[in-house]
Fold this sequence. Notes:
Four copies of one chain form a homotetramer.
Chain A: E1 2-5, H1 11-20, E2 25-29, E3 34-38, H2 47-51, E4 56-60, H3 67-70, E5 75-78, E6 81-84, E7 90-94, H4 101-113, E8 118-120, H5 138-150, E9 154-158, H6 165-171, E10 174-177, H7 185-192, E11 197-201, H8 208-220, E12 225-230, H9 246-255, E13 260-262, H10 264-268, H11 274-284, E14 288-292, H12 310-322
Parallel strand pairs in A: 7-8, 7-14, 8-9, 9-10, 10-11, 11-12, 12-13, 13-14
Antiparallel strand pairs in A: 1-3, 1-4, 2-3, 5-6
Helix pairs in contact in A: 4-5, 7-8, 11-12
Amino acid sequence: MIVTVGPNVDPSLVRAALIEHGLWVRRFDGLDAVQFFIEPMSPSVARETILKIEGVVDVAVSSPSTPRLDAHPSTLDVGGVAIGAGAAPVLMAGPCSVETEEQIHSLASEVARAGGSFLRGGAFKPRTSPYDFQGHGQSALRWLRTAADQHHLRVVTEALQPSDAPLVAEYADLVQVGSRNMHNAPLLRAVGATHRPVLLKRGMAATVDEWLFAAETLLLHGAQGVVLCERGIRGFETSTRFTLDIAAVALIAHVHHLPIIVDPSHAAGRRDLIPALCDASIAAGAAGVMVESHDRPGCALSDGPQAISPETLSMIGARMFARTPGGREPHVSNSSLRSCVA
Amino acid sequence: MIVTVGPNVDPSLVRAALIEHGLWVRRFDGLDAVQFFIEPMSPSVARETILKIEGVVDVAVSSPSTPRLDAHPSTLDVGGVAIGAGAAPVLMAGPCSVETEEQIHSLASEVARAGGSFLRGGAFKPRTSPYDFQGHGQSALRWLRTAADQHHLRVVTEALQPSDAPLVAEYADLVQVGSRNMHNAPLLRAVGATHRPVLLKRGMAATVDEWLFAAETLLLHGAQGVVLCERGIRGFETSTRFTLDIAAVALIAHVHHLPIIVDPSHAAGRRDLIPALCDASIAAGAAGVMVESHDRPGCALSDGPQAISPETLSMIGARMFARTPGGREPHVSNSSLRSCVA
Amino acid sequence: MIVTVGPNVDPSLVRAALIEHGLWVRRFDGLDAVQFFIEPMSPSVARETILKIEGVVDVAVSSPSTPRLDAHPSTLDVGGVAIGAGAAPVLMAGPCSVETEEQIHSLASEVARAGGSFLRGGAFKPRTSPYDFQGHGQSALRWLRTAADQHHLRVVTEALQPSDAPLVAEYADLVQVGSRNMHNAPLLRAVGATHRPVLLKRGMAATVDEWLFAAETLLLHGAQGVVLCERGIRGFETSTRFTLDIAAVALIAHVHHLPIIVDPSHAAGRRDLIPALCDASIAAGAAGVMVESHDRPGCALSDGPQAISPETLSMIGARMFARTPGGREPHVSNSSLRSCVA
Amino acid sequence: MIVTVGPNVDPSLVRAALIEHGLWVRRFDGLDAVQFFIEPMSPSVARETILKIEGVVDVAVSSPSTPRLDAHPSTLDVGGVAIGAGAAPVLMAGPCSVETEEQIHSLASEVARAGGSFLRGGAFKPRTSPYDFQGHGQSALRWLRTAADQHHLRVVTEALQPSDAPLVAEYADLVQVGSRNMHNAPLLRAVGATHRPVLLKRGMAATVDEWLFAAETLLLHGAQGVVLCERGIRGFETSTRFTLDIAAVALIAHVHHLPIIVDPSHAAGRRDLIPALCDASIAAGAAGVMVESHDRPGCALSDGPQAISPETLSMIGARMFARTPGGREPHVSNSSLRSCVA
């Protein structure tokens, strides 16, 4: 926003009035008039409100750049589950990768028991090393669907490339676009074209504006709706895996009025912080959380360290739904070796 | 931590057991033995627990580098107010700078009304530009103390240079070391030497480890105790002033077991996000929050845009103490110009 | 690397010897032995060298995780042009997007005149907003190829999705994987499968290790060779578009011995810094630079502000090849309005 | 800068003309006029130039916020050595900490032999841990001065707290304000008041603007002149200690026209990258470099790993003055243990 001060007006009075609204201002002096540029870190205030300030002669605004997203409801129905403002918090859980049919059935039952409504699990996995496990593909999708159905859960899972999108959309209630693909326009177009609701993770170095543009791309190409997912951004701190940008959660929820959930598993990478970060996310305005859970984290084919146990999952669910404060993750007591191959 | 695997043991079984404890491992192969380096982003697990894993022959650990801090209680009494785990959340509020005697009295009464227990306000101000207001010094300290006493509040205020420390300590219950000075060893020594409790803000680019070292320096030089304060770190996002590192709050509270509060005013810089970030901070494990409040933000001599009104302060207090969920900041309705000089 | 100290050896002597080699060490005390973990920010020193240090009984190393890349030559021949250590610096230039057939012919002739050997230009464009120009696709590829051939240049251009890869490979000498796609495994596999040399831009938030893993993925799937391209990473500084990580350039060139070029146009986003950053890149060890150039930047369909004029391009070429020091970009003198539609 | 477009003018023509000058623009629509905000990452273009664009009716600019710095010469004479544009590059070297009288004499002779003109060395050391060596204080200052004088070198050394400033100024030709103190206003005032030239290191998380404000503070309080020093900023990359912001060097040198040097030792923390980064710094526009050198890095009381040997220092000097390209640091061959206590 650019605010122009009229002639014969003391600019410092206008400045004070702008600050009174919480706006960060930078003053520029023209030949004819003083202008205040409103910095992006300012709260959202309506143009009309600013125009009413005595001494303000014009307020220039940028054109809406994400018109479809601006019209998006603050709550989205996904397979009968409401996600967003006013709705009960939503718990999504499951393994990083879908590993076997048995595993996903067992974990689905744990998710249901904890009060979860979505089963997550990767069928196609984006991995840093090409030598790591890349996912079981369509079989995994089938197992996910069956396991979810059996426990009255919905399925959220990721599409990795444009050609996967229709297949994933066939099995998933909510099609995920992962952090590494937030900037991947061909994938956004293909996923949008499935006309399903989409879970859009924030790129690990994406600004909020870039993230919203990616959401707009999905809607423009046909997505039925979007749920955003904050999953940690890159920073310098090494005691956690990424930096959970909790203020972005509050911003999306309370200023943009869009449904947003948080993935504290990737953000922190630390199992011992996940319960507290689930609580903080809901308190900040998140409509739910998505966590990685596993019954044998040591045997997980990917991201085992950040997976929580079924017990911790239950505790998180109990706190989310009952808002029971306090509680820490139960300690792992077992220290004898068990082979991962049963 | 470095874990050494014994001969004739399958390292992948030890790896699985380590991951079972949530540890991120990196494998190194020696001539004699396989070793796993435990990455810093891992949860804290006792050495004894790891030594009990079958096949582990040694666990090497680093020496405690902050012995005084490790012995610090998780709750600190500051002028009769308990700050930390188990205690009620603490609300600290007041203006960025102490501007006039009248102002600070009026704001103190608002802080007390909102349920706050500490009055904050800068007497010595660190400013980016040398041409900005630098604080009223000792007069401000006196006004602060009188205003606080009148409303049964404690005083928290910042010392900017070693020679200020004794003076500030005379007036403050809790002596603040600001973000820009977290790495300022001479100041830490001087503030420690006052033998008062200290509020230590995190440097805007400090890692958690560096922050803990600064706290250790304070204790080593005599500080009676330390309360840490997360106030946002530097990142790439421009829609907020800094990036509030909520995971660091959970880490300090739940893993290091130290008293920590959050300053969402500087972290977000946006008045519209402050209530939600207060809620999130308490949920993450913070022992309290410190916010900037002002009755006429447009007239504030510094950081006016991020100051909240007395009404918002009341609402934050009500939510902190009653845990009433929801609620947004009341809108500023007034849009006529008022001169800041009464 | 983990270094184990023998019994009856003073660990501080081993520590000193390690530091003598430039290694950053962190000490861990086991039940049986002292171990030093060598931090990642240390220079690369051979295991054998460390094993020769008196008192060292074992040195554990990680397995090579990018075996194909480790075997990659430090200089790659692309269409008869050598890129890498020992070879003359390579200049790649052209528009951000290929806009018209005339434009690309005219720019190709400028690139050739400046001593460039590669013509760059986007046929498929990754854009932040879905409403921005997305590229002319196959027509642009055809125009690029013809223009390049006419001026004895090679073509470097980007593939945006797996299904584009074969088509792009048909027209390009060097197939580009862009910054937003560095983590896009399906694209890396498809581009690798074309068996062409690949220009791999660093993801804007990718660590060097993640970047090398992406290069390995390309090679594993068939790429004939890889040239890395540093294009700036995300940071907090706003006076430039991104932060050019010059140390990563030196690291790739002098420690990893791989061909690397620099794209200062995206890194700085500022036309006035591009000549100096070209010089700095070559001095740091880059095998060449890739810059965006345009004859009418004001009419460019994308990234016009960062495009340099043909005159600046000539100056950069002259300095790269003659190593003439100094020089700044010529000023734009024209300030009358010209319509972009001829 | 804010550019206002006149009525009856096609804003897209003005936009094109602005981009023609390399400016990044954001469009805002007022009730009366279209305005373009020029983003901070744009090149510096004179207001007059923009006013000449057809259709532009006003150009609003911000008031100079660092008037003294704007009037600062681009070259500063420090003890008879010119530092800045047009002058020969300057080499500053010496140990991280001044450890003994013998050491500093021996290193001074190496610095002189390599063509250096400044001897550096810490008398007062800012350390992360309170248990680390904090410097020899005044004795170190005396040793530094004598050693420098004997080899016709100037002295650059750091003042850590306001009360040190006069003492340091007595011994140093160039008084250093370290990275951890860039935001320390009381220190800046005290150092300015010594009326000496000052070397101002960039804070590890400081923006260029904040850095310039700190330089202005020095000048406002009396500093005779300022040399800026880029020493790496905090980022996410862990294969180097910090991220050397080479574009900031080009910006300070070529746009702000101020003397700037680079400290690649702290920036990279890796001895193997220092020669290449020295070359790159000079190529980017730096007036010199400051490096840490040591004859027995393994025995250094601080930052040994990043210290270069006298041989590498000679090579750097040779390349800086003769501009001999290429060359790597000589390898450390010695691997037997020598006690650091002679």
